[in-house]
C-alpha cells in the first residue's frame, strides 16, 4: 500500500489554511469532474481529490493525518504502525475510501450515512478504531478504552481531549466489525438526543497467531524426530493448550485442522496448525557427531531432488 500525500494531491502547503484548501478543492473539482473534464483518468483524479479534501477540510482527521504522515512521501510503501490510529474519534461521512484512507481512519470514517445530511440536525454519530486482543474475541471481555477526541476552539485551533469508556467486547467479534455505543456520539447540533459511537475493531498483532476471517493460524515447531516418527505434542490456542497428534512422516508446511477452535461464531472458525521443523543446533562435538551419523545413515537422501539438482 502506497502512502498518499493529500497536500500534494490538493497542491497546497502543509500549513495551508482552511480557505486555501477550500479554494484548491473547488478548482480541482471543476477541472476533473467526470461530466465535464476531458483530462485522461479524470474520474480517478476526481476521487483522489475528494478523498484528500475529506481529510484536510476536517480539523480532526487533518490532525491525525499530520501526526502520522509527516515523515512519509507520496508513493512510498506504507504500513501504519500498530495502533497508530487507534483511539482517534471522528465524525462519520465521506467519499468512497481508498485502502490507504481506511488504514488510517477505518471503514466507518469513509462511509456515508452516519450523521451527515439532514439527519445531522438531530444527532451526529462518531467513529473510532480500537485494538483488542485476540483472546478477547474468544471469551468476550469488558475493557477500559481511552479515546482521543479532537476539539476545535473558536479560533479554529485543534486540541485533543481524552475520555475513557468501559466497553463490552462481545464474544466472537472479528476485525472490521463494529461495536455500537448508543448515545455516546456527538451532541445534537440543535439539541435533542446524542448520536452513537461506532467502534471499529481490529486485533493487536499477536506473537503466535494470525487471523483470516473466522480462522486462526498457528505455526508450530517440531523436532525432527517428532515429525519423522509421529508424536503427541502440546499446542497453544487462544482458548488454552491442547494435545495435538502429529502423524509420522510429517513434512514442514503441513496443516492440521482443529475444527471449531477458531473465532467463535455460528458456525465457528477453525484453527490451523502449520507444522515447521526446528533443527537442534550443532554447537557441541556430540551434536556434530549425531548429524554426521545421520548423513551417513541416509546417503541417498536429497532434499533438493524435486528441484532437479
Structure overview:
With 309 residues, the protein is an alpha+beta fold. It folds into two domains: 198 residues, Orthogonal Bundle (Helix Hairpins); 80 residues, Urease metallochaperone UreE, N-terminal domain (HSP40/DNAj peptide-binding domain, Sandwich). Helices cover 25% and strands 25% of the residues. The chain is built from eight helices and twelve strands. The chain has a four-stranded mixed sheet. The protein has a four-stranded mixed sheet with strand order 7-8-12-11. A hairpin with a 6-residue loop joins strand 9 and strand 10. Helix 2 runs antiparallel to helix 3. The longest helix is centred in the N-terminal third of the chain and has 15 residues. It is elongated and about 80 Å long.
Strand content: 25-35%
Termini separation comes to 37 Å
Strand arrangement, major sheet: 1-2-6-5
Instruction: Extract low-pLDDT stretches.
Output: 111-122
What form results from the Cα inertia axes?
Answer: elongated
The SSE string, one letter per element, is HHHHEHEHEEEEEEHEEEEH
How many domains?
Answer: 2
State the helicity in percent bands: 25-40%
The total strand number stands at 12
Q: What characterizes the major β-sheet?
A: 4 strands, mixed
Helix tally equals 8
CATH class of the largest domain: Mainly Alpha
The Rg value, from CA coordinates, equals 26 Å
- Helix-and-strand structural type: alpha+beta
Amino acid at each position: 500500500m502506497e502512502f498518499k500525500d493529500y497536500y500534494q494531491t490538493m497542491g497546497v502547503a502543509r500549513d495551508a489554511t482552511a480557505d486555501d484548501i477550500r479554494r484548491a478543492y473547488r478548482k480541482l473539482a471543476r477541472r476533473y469532474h467526470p461530466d465535464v473534464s476531458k483530462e485522461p483518468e479524470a474520474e480517478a483524479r476526481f476521487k483522489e481529490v475528494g478523498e484528500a479534501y475529506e481529510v484536510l477540510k476536517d480539523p480532526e482527521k487533518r490532525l491525525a493525518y499530520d501526526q502520522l504522515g509527516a515523515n512519509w512521501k507520496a508513493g512510498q510503501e506504507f504500513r501504519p504502525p500498530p495502533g497508530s490510529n487507534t483511539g482517534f474519534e471522528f465524525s462519520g461521512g465521506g467519499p468512497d475510501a481508498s485502502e490507504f484512507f481506511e488504514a488510517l481512519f477505518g471503514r466507518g470514517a469513509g462511509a456515508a450515512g452516519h450523521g451527515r445530511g439532514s439527519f445531522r440536525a438531530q444527532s451526529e454519530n462518531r467513529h473510532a478504531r480500537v485494538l483488542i486482543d485476540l483472546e478477547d474475541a474468544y471469551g468476550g471481555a469488558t475493557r477500559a478504552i481511552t479515546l482521543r477526541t479532537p476539539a476545535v476552539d473558536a479560533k479554529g485551533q485543534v486540541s485533543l481531549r481524552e475520555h475513557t469508556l468501559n466497553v463490552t467486547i462481545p464474544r466472537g467479534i472479528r476485525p472490521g466489525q463494529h461495536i455500537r455505543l448508543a448515545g455516546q456520539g456527538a451532541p445534537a447540533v440543535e439539541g435533542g438526543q446524542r448520536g452513537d459511537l461506532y467502534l471499529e475493531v481490529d486485533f493487536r498483532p499477536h506473537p503466535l497467531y494470525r487471523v483470516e476471517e473466522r480462522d486462526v493460524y498457528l505455526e508450530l515447531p517440531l523436532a525432527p524426530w517428532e515429525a519423522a516418527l509421529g508424536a503427541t505434542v502440546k499446542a497453544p490456542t487462544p482458548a488454552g493448550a491442547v494435545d495435538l497428534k502429529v502423524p509420522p512422516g510429517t513434512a514442514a508446511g503441513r496443516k492440521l485442522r482443529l475444527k471449531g477452535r477458531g473465532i467463535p461464531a455460528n458456525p465457528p472458525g477453525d484453527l490451523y496448525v502449520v507444522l515447521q521443523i526446528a533443527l537442534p543446533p550443532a554447537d557441541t562435538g556430540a551434536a556434530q557427531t549425531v548429524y554426521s551419523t545421520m548423513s551417513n545413515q541416509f546417503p541417498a537422501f536429497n532434499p533438493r531432488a524435486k528441484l532437479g539438482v
